[in-house]
Amino acid sequence: MNQNESAEKAASFRKDPGRDPLRFLVFSASLRTDSLNTRLARLAVRIIEKRGAIVDFAEMKEFDCPSFNQDMELEKIIPPGAEQFLKRLTSNDAFIISSPEYNASMPGHLKNVIDWVSRSRPQPFNERHGLLMSASPSMAGGNRGLWSLRIPFEHLGARVFPDMFSLAMAHQAFNPAGEIINTTLAGRFEITLEKFMDLVEAAKHYPCIKKAWIEFLGEQPGPLTERAE
Ligand SMILES: Cc1cc2nc3c(=O)[nH]c(=O)nc-3n(C[C@H](O)[C@H](O)[C@H](O)COP(=O)(O)O)c2cc1C
């Protein structure tokens, strides 16, 4: 079976009326109007929908929050952006973020909302599948930022997909239709999304082992180990 045939087979499988379609939260972590990451996120939406899944497309401004402050948390104040991120995260099967790289790391506003949402119980990132991508005018495509973004997600027990996609020289990479001009890169982008969709499909319809989320080996889940569950 060639690649196209296998993609078509997978797509028809996902459209099986007996199954719940897969649902993906997709957003760009840029607040900028003409964001390159938003262009990449929108292209991902088209590919995912073509393969039979449902996309919940969000904008970063919906999730933007004031800086985390534990005093606010003690007063039970949760910013609307954090509530919205939590709601959208938990009502989808998986999340896909296209994030800018700021100073070789993730944008502060993205880490901030992750911190806010990580305080919710049950801790919502645990066992949740995620795919990370980036776009940048630089030659590295913002890839270093994704390595830093993996850290909080891995710490929180998210199933961060091993493959990541970084679009280098992104300011020159798209045609007017919003597609990636370089056909090799465009193919790699589609394959990365398809493989991620396959994994989410398997996790949704063929769950097997469930594990407790703990911070350190040997730590026992319990009310006293505050962040463990
Ligand atoms: C504060 C700041 C730091 C940046 N640091 C990096 C960097 O470390 N690596 C990089 O590739 N681009 C860096 N850039 C450039 C961004 O990749 C570029 O502005 C990109 O277009 C931002 O993504 P967006 O178009 O989705 O908003 C930085 C931009 C800003 C504003």
The proportion of residues in beta strands is 5-15%
Q: How much helix is in the residues?
A: 40-55%
Mean pLDDT: 90
Helix segment tally: 8
Amino-to-carboxy terminus distance:
44 Å
Query: Based on helices, strands and strand pairing, what is the structural class?
Result: alpha/beta
Rough outline:
globular
Provide the list of bound ligands, each named once: flavin mononucleotide
Detailed description of the structure:
With 229 residues, this protein is α/β, with parallel strands linked by helices. Strands 1, 2, 3, 4, 5 and 6 form a 6-stranded parallel β-sheet that branches. The termini are far apart. Bound molecules: flavin mononucleotide. Flavin mononucleotide binds next to helix 2.
Summarize the structure.
The protein is of the alpha/beta class. It is 41% helix and 13% strand.
Task: List the defining traits of the structure above.
single chain, 229 residues, alpha/beta, six-stranded parallel β-sheet, 8 helices, 6 strands, 13% strand, binds flavin mononucleotide
Can you lay out the helices and strands and say which pair or pack?
Layout: H1 3-14, E1 23-28, H2 36-50, E2 54-59, H3 60-63, H4 70-74, H5 80-90, E3 94-98, H6 108-118, E4 129-135, H7 143-155, E5 159-160, E6 165-167, H8 183-205
Parallel strand pairs: 1-2, 1-3, 3-4, 4-5, 4-6
The structure holds flavin mononucleotide (FMN).
